[in-house]
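README, section 4: Worked example with a bound small molecule

Sections 1 through 3 covered apo chains. Here we extend the same pipeline to holo records, where the ligand is supplied as SMILES alongside the sequence. The molecule in this example is 2-acetamido-2-deoxy-beta-D-glucopyranose. Nothing else about the input changes; the structure line simply encodes the ligand pose together with the chain.
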Amino acid sequence: MLPLLLLLLGSAHGLEKLDYTPTLARSTLGGLTTTSTFVLEQPRCIFTNVEDNIVIWLVVAVPEAIDNFNNSVGPGTPKRAFQRFPTSAPAYMTLNTTRINYPCTNTSGAITVLRVGSETSCTRDESRPTCNGPLPGPGPYRVKFLALEGSKPVAETNWSAPIPLRTAQQPSSIPVTGSGHSAGMIALTTILSILFAILLAGLVAMLVFRGSDTCGSSGSTFSKPEAVTVGRYNTHHVYDQPSARL
Ligand SMILES: *[C@@H]1O[C@H](CO)[C@@H](O)[C@H](O)[C@H]1NC(C)=O
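The generated complex, written as structure tokens:
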């Protein structure tokens, strides 16, 4: 009895929850995310119960917006306008199509992915609030597909996992801390400073030895003449070859 009641309530509400989670495209080609785009798998063979005339939208939201997300705020309204995202619109709706474009049959060679953020011509055009424009920052973003019959939500997928975009510096190679200086950068600077100090000490030592070479009466005062005076100190025959190469 209770399941039946829930079923009735569900159909009265009219929103079908599809057990599908949007995912980034599986590809070995790379470039699935850039600094302003990402590539999703098309939701093929998912919206099988909706009518042919129903329009399937992609919703792109900031993660904070999904808990109390209102499906009834329609595409093209100020709260869902690309140009206002993410400052005054917590989400936008784009890439509207019908299920005919997400078929079950897979014709080989067909494009089965969606590039989100690929349309640059409408980025600032307020008359095109459903623009598939470049994403405004590194994210992360969460997306879902929502089917609308007119303005009435009829079916939706789950929200995707958070999708972070690339930043100008790859976070994996240069971890950025709060102060803006990375640990790697500090380590590198330290190592370079030490190396520079050693080099400077060596240079000073060389000058000192050279000084004592010219002032001293003979070469017998040095412990290791070959180490510091190779260029000029040719008393010994075997040093001719290496010094010539230097
Ligand atoms: C998508 O929406 C735009 C604006 O609402 C409309 O002009 C266009 O015809 C729609 N395209 C499809 C395939 O539904």
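What to look for in the output: The two ends are 95 Å apart (CA to CA). Residues 5-11 have pLDDT under 50 and may be disordered.

Section 5 describes how to batch many such records.
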